[in-house]
Each structure stands twice: as structure tokens, then as C-alpha cells.
Amino acid sequence: MGLKQTFERAHSVEQAQQPSVGLVGFGGFGRLIARELAQGNKLTICDPLYSRAVLPDGQRLTLQGLAEVAQSDIVILAVPVSAMAHVCRVLAPHLRPGTLVVDVGSVKVAPMQDMQRLLPAHVEILGTHPLFGPQSARSGIAGHKIALCPVRGSKWRRVAAVLRRRGLQVLVTSAQDHDRELAVVQGLTHMIGKVLSDLGPMPERLTTASFDLLREAVRMVQDDPPTVLHAIEVANPYAAEVRNAFFERAEELKAQFEAHPEVGQTVPAS
Questions:
Q1: Region 170-193 average pLDDT
Q2: CA of 270: how far to CAs of 217, 267, in Å?
Q3: pTM: predicted TM-score of the whole model, two decimal places
Q4: Three-state DSSP state, 221
Q5: Where is the Prephenate/arogenate dehydrogenase domain (predicted)?
């Protein structure tokens, strides 16, 4: 066997060993996942809102029905948190034993409960939250963080190893701990970003380094769909407590400023 044939055979064996991946959802984050998995993986996509699946570089991907996508070794649910229960109900009858079902939502407690309750016992379940998005990962995912919330089965360990090889920082946690921390990390960031964005154009000329960082944070979240903001602020069971504490403190500061308008004023020279 010649050198060329040897490499071709090795490549075909490697391809055969790659798990097939089914992606449910081709929205903003679904497209980011597809971009990262399109090379070297057997990837099929299901999203009834799209008649074709095309990446920014022009690469066309295979669109199939949910029943066909469910036959993949790994099924990734890139759907809104509010749609998770419905998708799981429809998906459940088509899943093969041993399939790993993964979600990528911003909230973990409720979706993980839906997946455990509605998916068959013969599949494995892994909750994930990539702590980045299409804006922050537009140049690549290496160096970013991803949270893993193992629920059922052991295949998540292989997934974690693959993610580390792709340059991601893997953080293993529980659904409850994830939502508690993200109630602050995302809950406040997205809320403040939404408020500042609604105030209108932000200054661009006379700015400070700290303001430039704030403006960049707003830019990263201002184009998120309403479903993302709803999940972060409403579906997270710990978000309301953090949000209320923030507004209470803001009201206290407002009251201080209004009660003592003279504070900070220059005292005229005698």
C-alpha cells in the first residue's frame, strides 16, 4: 500500500470513528455551534424556521427532520429555554439507546428538570452553558469558558476532554450552583446592557478606559434575541433576588444624592 493510500485509509477510519452530531436549532448560537463542528464531524441540523443551512463562508449543511437528527450519537439542543419541554417531548420517541443529549442554554435548573422528566431513561443527559456567544467568539472559541452540568451517564467526560483539546476552559458544576452564580454574572450584565442600550447612542469621543469596557460589554449583549434576556432574567430562579437587591441599592444611592445635593460642591472662597 502506497503512502497516499495509507493516509487516505487512516483518514477514513478516523472519520468513521467520529460520533455523528445532530443539532436542533440554527439560530445565532446554533450557527456558532455548526461553524465549530462542520469540519471533521458528521453534522445534521433540524430547524423548521429555515429552508437551508448555510454558514458565513458559504458552506451548506444538511437539514433534516427531527426524527432523522435524533438518530445521531450526540444530539445538541440549541433552542430557547422556554421551548425545551416541547422539544424534549417531540424528540423523546425517536432517540436511540445510549445517545447523549446536550443542551446549551443560559439557565440550567429548569431545563435539566425538563430533560430528566421527558427524555427516556436509555439516553444520557449533559447540561452545558458556553460562557460566550456569537459576538465574543466571532474569532474562535479557544480561551473561552464552558460550564458542564452532568445529569445522567458518563459520556460527558469524553466531551469534556474534547472541549479542552479545542482550547476551552471546562468548569464542572451543578445546575443550582450555575444558576446562582449566573444570576449575578449574566443577570446584572444583560439588564444593565439593556437599559444603557435603550438610553440611545453612547458617547464615542470623550471616553475613559472604564467606559470603553462598559460600552464593549453593552455591544456584546445588545443584539441578543428577547428569548435570551427572558431566560436570564425570568427563567433563572435566583435572578429576581439579585435584581431586587441591585435596584434597592440604586434607590438608596438616589435618595442619598437627592437628600444631600450640596455634597461634592466646591465651597466658595471667603
A1: 96
A2: 46, 9
A3: 0.85
A4: helix
A5: 19-270
Region(s) of the chain under CATH 3.40.50.720 = 3-173
Among the listed residues 122, 139, 121, 130, the one whose alpha carbon sits nearest the alpha carbon of residue 103: 130
Please list the residues that pair with 152 across neighbouring strands. 125
Q: What is the DSSP letter of 107?
A: -
pLDDT band with cut points at 50, 70 and 90 for residue 5: low
51 and 93 Cβ atoms separated by less than 8 Å: no
How far apart are alpha carbons 135 and 219 in whole angstroms?
A: 9
The span from the CA of 34 to the CA of 48, in Å, is 16
Q: Is the pLDDT of residue 34 over 80?
A: yes
Query: What's the pLDDT band for 2 if we cut at 50, 70, 90?
Result: low
Lowest mean pLDDT among 10-19, 37-46, 94-103, 241-250: 10-19
Q: Are 233 and 187 in contact (CB under 8 A)?
A: yes
Question: What residues are paired with 21 via a beta bridge?
Answer: 43, 74
pLDDT above 70 (res 270): no
Q: How many CA atoms within 13 Å lie on the side-chain side of 14?
A: 9
* Residue 127, strand partner residues: 103, 149
Task: Specify the fold of 3-173.
Answer: Rossmann fold (3.40.50)
Over the chain, what is the mean pLDDT? 89
User: CA-CA-CA-CA torsion for 242, 109, 154, 172, nearest 10 degrees?
Assistant: 0
Question: How far is 31 from 25, CA to CA, in rounded Å?
Answer: 8
Q: How many other C-beta atoms lie within 10 A of the C-beta of residue 76?
A: 25
Q: Is the CB of residue 21 less than 8 Å from the CB of residue 42?
A: yes
